[in-house]
Amino acid sequence: xxxxxxxxxxxxxxxxxxxxxxxxxxxxxxxxxxxxxxxxxxxxxxxxxxxxxxxxxxxxxxxxxxxxxxxxxxxxxxxxxxxxxxxxxxxxxxxxxxxxxxxxxxxxxxxxxxxxxxxxxxxxxxxxxxxxxxxxxxxxxxxxxxxxxxxxxxxxxxxxxxxxxxxxxxxxxxxxxxxxxxxxxxxxxxxxxxxxxxxxxxxxxxxxxxxxxxxxxxxxxxxxxxxxxxxxxxxxxxxxxxxxxxxxxxxxxxxxxxxxxxxxxxxxxxxxxxxxxxxxxxxxxxxxxxxxxxxxxxxxxxxxxxxxxxxxxxxxxxxxxxxxxxxxxxxxxxxxxxxxxxxxx
Length: 345
Description:
three-stranded antiparallel β-sheet; nine-stranded mixed β-sheet; 11 helices; 29% helix; alpha/beta
């Protein structure tokens, strides 16, 4: 069973009509299209307003960019001292060994940079990127991203984790991936073994946006990682029409925790070109986050964050629960039911 890599493949797979394909042809020429065989089967019978379909299948709305949207919305290029490295915070860096993904999410903030044939770093370029990290004693955590690092062979992944484990200042490697939800069969024993290296804490951040993604196959892939001793974090993007309601977020975050994935970040959508149809307002996001307090346990509460355009890092975007009053030392505190209380301190 072949992967889907074009509009004609989507039509042939029965995922859109010929007419719908013609409407998105120019979108697909600019922004990459790909579905794994697993996801192609999962999307059968779903429609454009379905929360899984909307994440992966191109829409005519992607042809329209708003004035504030950017080709590099979180400033990767501005913070890249050497090819394949983004150094935004003093104690951690991103390492991007490749720019290809198994699937191409329609809201991706790197959609201008990733795609078919997305180049992997050459051997010399990877050596230079690792040398940059080695020569920076303040770097304690390395976030391996891309593209999707789980597309690398176990041999290539092992090269990276072993190199990082040999750097005395590096204590943590965190790998960000969509693979467990998009191609769960790829999470093999060989791949998992490649993530583990001496004196290095390996974490995996899994991108999952909706409870429908937590199929039996996906749950089994997550379990294989956890049972190998790798702690899992959940990365979710708040997407209009996909998960922007309390019931959807509750089901997702409970599902993640039940599968031993700690919800970590709930991302406000970045200002990537052609993605405005996925973006609600910050006020709407804050109201949703506020509705979860008391509805689900603390284990199920991610941090709602905004990536500041230009490469200035993430800012917590959560609503305020505690407000100063006009009286010195007196605060107004809101509980999960919406009632307010006085607190002096």
